[in-house]
Write a structure and sequence with these properties.
The structure holds two protein chains of two kinds. By secondary structure, chain A is mainly α. Chain A has two domains: 45 residues; 170 residues, no CATH class. In chain A, the strands form two sheets. A three-stranded antiparallel β-sheet of chain A has the order 4-3-5. A two-stranded antiparallel sheet of chain A has the order 1-2. Chain A is elongated. In chain A, 32% of the residues are buried. The C terminus of chain A is likely disordered. By secondary structure, chain B is of the alpha/beta class. Chain B is built from eleven helices and 27 strands. In chain B, the strands form five sheets. A nine-stranded mixed β-sheet of chain B has the order 25-26-19-22-21-20-24-23-27. A seven-stranded mixed β-sheet of chain B has the order 5-8-2-3-4-1-9, with no helix packed on it. The radius of gyration of chain B is 59 Å and the shape is elongated. The chains are: A mainly alpha, B alpha/beta. Chains A and B meet through α2, β4, α7, α8 and α9 of A and α1 of B.
Chain lengths: 228, 554
Amino acid sequence: MKDILASAEELPRGIDQNLAGCHICGKASPTSLEHCPRCGSHLHLRKPHSIQRTLALLAAAAIFYIPANLLPIMTIVEVGEVTKATIIEGMINFWKAGAYPIAIVIFTASILIPLLKIIALCWLCAAASGRLHPSPKALSRIYLITELLGRWSMVDIFVVGILVALAQLGNYMTVTIGPGALAFGCVVIVTMFSAMSFDPRLLWDRMLAEQSQSSNHPQPLERTDPNS
Amino acid sequence: MSEPIPTPEEETSAATPDFRPTKRWNIVWVVPILALLIGSWLVYQNFKAKGPVVEIRFETAEGIAAGKTEVRCRSVRVGYVKHVELAEDLKSVIIKAELDPEAENLLRRGTRFWVVRPRVSASDISGLGTLITGAFIELDPGQGKDTVSEFVGLETPPATNTNIPGRRLILEAETAGSLAPSSPIYYRGFEVGRIESRRLAKDGSKVIYDAFIKEEYSHLVTENTRFWNSSGIDISAGADGFKVRTPSFQAMVTGGAVFGVPEGMPSGAIVKDGENFTLYQDEDAAQKSTFNPTLRFLLQFDQSVRGLSKGAPVEFRGIVIGRVVDISFNYYTDSSVDDRRIPVLIEIDPYQLRRETADKMSAPNSDFLAKAVGNGLRAALKTGSLLTGAMYVDLDFYKDQPVAALGKAGNITTLPTVSSGLAQLEAKITAILDKIQALPLDDTVRNFSLAAETSQATLKEIQDTAAAARKTLEDPEFRQLPTDVRKTLDELQKSVSSVGPDGAIQGDLLRTLDELRASLRSIKAMTNSIDEKPNSLLFGKDSTGNPIPKAPRR
């Protein structure tokens, strides 16, 4: 058992000892308790239905992604002139106007990041359910990127929110939010939930299982030893 | 598949709640379904909000900006201009406007578009608001049922909206004159409507006006209504001096139309929208227009028709009953016939004559005209004005004309003609000249000279007599004659005075009378004695015996 731990992990995993970390307060308790003795919340070894939830939310995000880019994100009424702009139109306008950095920022924050996040989460789900066999290094890097990117994908909504709040100059200029903004907000929120519902520990569980399967059969048995 | 713990030892730790057989489909899948619903609803909302796109063709896109210019209906925004592009022929612009979905039912047949720009004209000032807000496209919904998506915009705004109730008429004129959109229409000098637009007919034969009569006056327009142009100042000089007629000041500046029913005509039924009327050049023309030509005839003139123009009157003994429609050889359909007579097509309104006559004339298969022609009805060209040389066609009965009858040229009835007017005059003069030429002028002249000579001699004798007379008169003896006469008269007077009661003659006369009386007395005694003794004259008073005859003396 020692050599296994030494080869795979230094310390025994919580799952191997039927110890579950509380989702709320983080206290490790035996799963037999069902409820956290400290805060009373349900105890799970892993996030329940994690991959299914993640995938469902990702699908929702992908669906929202279409209207978010097709519909105008805001309507600018400027001295009787009505301008409706989708995200891509806005970006193209900035690009044409020579504001390349802003165009790049918008492109990255509004188009690229949500798309990348969706793809990355899909990829992670695939890896967690054993359909892909990436190296642990790639897995961790992609997970890190997903976590990092998620924070920045609200930029557009933030900008629109500020504009709507500030640019209310009566008849001269009014900015109203468009249906695209709603869809875009949904994309961001749903991907955030999706990322939240994903349990990264599944990745390592899967990797461990595969390692043990590929190297020798008794490994999983030995791993279960502490449980029994 | 989402089983979080794939390790086989799970079966052994049955106490843990994690290893329940899980449902294949988690409740979380509601979320993407919801997302699908919301997303498709958003997209649907957005595309529903996109509304119909219309194409409007304008001559120029002045003041129109894509994405900016609004389409308004009664100043309510119903859409905006999405796109402005040049037409393929580069002669107009096509404006693509996106309308609000609620405005879709405004796009009917007859819907009109025009650009509202600031406009200042003699009759009105409009669209000043657009100086600040910029031009916009006004939409005036039409009355049609079917939806149309391509329109031709008006270059000038119509004077009235189609949804303002009233009568909309079409006026057709030969020339535009000064009548222009928004010119007023008067009835008895009262403004009752406006000219909405004017355009040239497609074939360019006339000018077409769209006229609008306000609802409250629409009943004034009836079948027999005549419209005429009242623009400008009408100056006419007649026997009673100069007459100047002016319409209202506005009509003088912008032009105007007047309508009314010609005198002596029934007004007829009230017309419907879209009725066509002729717009006459002036009131006189409108008044003269009361005839409704129903009969057409072809006249063939064997003389020049110079001076006869289309529209020239056709008169019957001075009453205008029709007009000349056309002068053209094209009415001879049979090309084989070499006819050099000039065909003149006329039309006649028989109702300008007596009604019964007209009915007889118009009746199908009537021989009324044939009889009239038999009685000498002929058409002739006559000079209407010596100044202009304008001719007219005169119908009249002529005696001593060669027999003629109604004919046919193609399917048009022909009326026989006589040469008249100058042609007839010419013929008569020629005849007179011929006669003059035929006279024995030489003999006459010779006789004349003889007579002249004789008379000259006579004259001379008269002259001599006169001279002798003068001589006699100048004779001193003759001159003394009056003195003698006076003397004689004086003597006569003296003699007369002697005859007077105190005169010697009176005394003589009395004495003579006395003697006469005595004589008479003695005569009486004598007659008595004769009575007593008739032979006393021979034998004296006391004679006895027989008379003794005496021998003749030697």
